[in-house]
Every structure is written in C-alpha cells, then in structure tokens.
Here is the input.
Amino acid sequence: METLLPIILQLVAGAVGGNVGGAAMKNASLGGLGNTIAGALGGLGGGNLLGAIIPALASAAGGGSTVGNLAASGIGGIVVQVIAGLIKSQMNKSA
Here is the structure.
C-alpha cells in the first residue's frame, strides 16, 4: 500500500488540477470527464517528473515531499488539460 498511495494522490491531485484548468479556461475545457481524465494523466506524469528532476526533494523525509508531489501533480494536471483542450479547440476550428 505504501507504493500505491503516492500514485493515488498524484491521480487525485491531477484530476483536481485538470478541473481547475477547465474552469479557468472555458475555451480549453474538455467537459467534466475529459478534464478529469486529462488532469489525472498529467498529475501522474507531473508527480513522476518531479521525482526524476529533483530526487532530493522527492526523497526528503517528512511532509515536504508529499506537499511538493501534490503541487507538481496538480500543476501537471492543469498543464496537460489545457494543452489537450487547446489542441481540441484548434482541431474543431479547422474541421
């Protein structure tokens, strides 16, 4: 369970970030489910990317690593959702 908990937290934080990104940029929104899925994928990637780029922060003892991981996952969720939403909106314009 210790290895599964960070993944679950990354998915949840990313999903929240994806919905925040969809609410902030209405023209890039993918709908509720689309924002959640894109955000969760971005959160998973963002949390793992943080661990690869800053291993000292990811392996730090205490709550700092969890907070940093959640923040990176939330930001990753926003970024992936907004990029996917903008690509979708551009594809709809050209069709």
About this structure: The mean pLDDT is 85. The first helix runs from residue 4 to 24. The two ends are 46 Å apart (CA to CA).
